[in-house]
Amino acid sequence: MKTSKKLFCIILLSIFFTQPLLANPEVSLPSSFNLMGSKVVVTQGGMEKIMAKYNSLTRSQKHYDILLERCNTYFPYIARELQTRGVPEEFKYLALQESLLDGNAISNATPPAVGFWQFKDFTAEERGMIINRTVDERKNVVAASIGAADYLSKNHYYLGNWFYAMISYHDGLTGAKNHIKKNKLNYYSQVTINEKTHPYVLHYLAHYFAFKDKVGKDQNHMVLIELPTSGYSLSQVSKFTGQPLNIISSNNIWLSGSYIPEDKVYSVMIEAKPDEINQLVAKLSPYAKTRKTRARSAIFQFYADSIQDDYPFVLPTHTESDNSKYDFAIVNGVKAVILKEEMTQKELIKSLGSISKGKLKKYNYIKGKDKLLKDTHYYIEPLPTSIPVSYHVLKEGESLNYIAIKYGIDLNALKKINEMSKESDAKVGDKIYFN
Questions:
Q1: Strands 191-193 and 38-42
Q2: Would you give per-residue pLDDT tens digits along the chain (435 residues)?
Q3: What is the reported pTM?
Q4: Cα–Cα distance measured from residue 400 to residue 383, given in angstroms and rounded to the nearest whole number
Q5: 256 and 142 Cβ atoms separated by less than 8 Å
Q6: Where's the LysM domain (predicted)?
Q7: Cα separation values, 346 from 165, 350, 366, 372, Å
Q8: In whole angstroms, what is the distance from residue 315 CA to residue 155 CA?
Q9: What is the CATH number of domain 28-211?
Q10: Per-domain residue ranges for the chain?
Q11: 107 vs 19, 31, 104, 137, 150, CA distance in Å?
């Protein structure tokens, strides 16, 4: 028995040491850089955490090359959908972190997270993806990337920083807020990475640095061409392209059957060599269909909302205040102060020094010489004309003025969206829409 164990260990060691390693034993990553609109500073403790993951990603040349090939194949589509929706392109490395760019990736969670961006079914459906017996768009790189971009864009609206939005992709929006408050983070002026930084962010930075200088260097890798279409079978697509059906099917694992449904235009991915692209595009053009691309203004039009009961959404900024009577915060994505004791309008205006009495009253719908109340938020910049929530059902005792303050939306815009000329037009039970 001891001999068998010894022999087994020798075999394992021989397998391990015959795996080729990347010839880069002394990598030096920058300790200060700009990323996604933030200045990032990495402490020694933070660098040690990043390097541990970096080394695991780059240890095997074979494994690294497989991931790099996937990056070159899928990143063009992921980056396109991110940038179209105002999300930094660098988030494409988050998809690599989530699934290793394996459309078939399934987590151990209940219910499981699936696909390129690891969406659970209910979250994917909120973001417009189709999931049924024949289609699972979580496994479609274009559809899943649109959903991820929408999710990140919405959360960035409330959190005001892309690194916070990244944390929310792992913890959820409320979870990210709790993490920020618990750890007293302030990423608005500088993102400091240390050994206590959220592991999700540390792992992201390891993926980012491990691949960013290698992606796109190989001009001869296999590429995918997107055919937006519906109403055909994969067998027909095989005839259009002259490619074997099994190759077509392997690049479209989101479709469990052969027929592409007609309920919407789907992204069918076709394999091609770089020198075949123009010829193949010409072949496919007659079968392509126009897809209605969601405009940026339509990103937030989802009727399921994960923080509907958490308004106003208050995020402390941990910015030092010169006055002990209030704290600065981001409330519903808008700069605000939260009073720790009662103040007059004149006191607050004088202390802030950056806002007039007229603007304070306008942004907060204050009438006359009303006192400003303790534990109440007051906006110090203009409210937006639409927000990432679909509607609120008006309850007894609520007014449009109250709803505008609670959710952080311009009152006149709110009336216009809901086709109301005056506040009294709103009745109990009405759905008050925000976009």
A1: parallel
A2: 434 444 334 333 343 344 554 545 568 899 999 999 999 999 999 999 999 999 999 999 999 999 999 999 999 999 999 999 999 999 999 999 999 999 999 999 999 999 999 999 999 988 889 999 999 999 999 999 999 999 999 899 999 999 999 999 999 999 999 999 999 999 998 999 999 999 999 999 999 999 999 998 877 778 999 999 999 999 999 999 999 999 999 999 999 989 999 999 999 999 998 888 899 999 999 999 987 655 444 444 443 444 556 789 899 887 777 788 999 999 999 999 999 999 999 999 999 998 999 999 999 999 888 889 999 999 999 999 988 777 888 889 999 999 999 999 999 999 999 999 988 899 998 888 888
A3: 0.85
A4: 14
A5: no
A6: 390-434
A7: 36, 6, 13, 10
A8: 12
A9: 1.10.530
A10: 28-211, 223-292, 314-433
A11: 27, 33, 10, 16, 22
Tokens representing 6 are: 């010894």
